[in-house]
Specification:
Layout: E1 2-7, E2 10-13, E3 18-26, E4 32-39, E5 46-51, E6 58-60, E7 68-73, E8 78-83, E9 92-100, E10 112-113, E11 117-122
Length: 123
């Protein structure tokens, strides 16, 4: 069992930056691929970024490439999402998710989810 708690969301102007954190409790954090997803009102939850459990792979959605960076600190059981050059279309509820010893960007293949943190980007 893994519990995930996101933090770091807020209101920011277009062009600004935010850093999201996701703290995991439970066992064997380094056995989980960690992902970030987001859901805007009226839209499906979509993939944003992932960092593999093995440390060898990262992935980013095309919409955030060059602007968002995912990282993880296994010693702190934490995954981060650094978001730069934010746009109004980045406004969404951002979720952290964990996938046991897999590598996928597919929402349904993640085993555990946090409650989400709201990011609002004003124009």
């Amino acid at each position: 069992q893994v519990q995930l708690v996101e933090s770091g969301g807020g209101l920011v102007q277009a062009g600004g930056s935010l850093r999201l954190s996701c703290a995991a409790s439970g066992r064997a954090f380094n056995s989980y691929t960690m992902g970030w997803f987001r859901q805007a009102p009226g839209k499906e939850r979509e993939f944003v970024a992932a960092f593999s459990w093995s440390g060898g792979n990262t992935a980013n959605a095309d919409s955030v490439k060059g602007r968002f960076t995912i990282s993880r600190d296994n010693a702190k059981n934490t995954v981060y999402l650094q978001m730069n050059s934010l746009k109004p279309e980045d406004t969404a509820l951002y979720y952290c998710a964990a996938q046991y010893r897999g590598w996928s960007t597919i929402r349904d293949e993640y085993d555990y989810w946090g409650q989400g943190t709201q990011v609002t980007v004003s124009s």
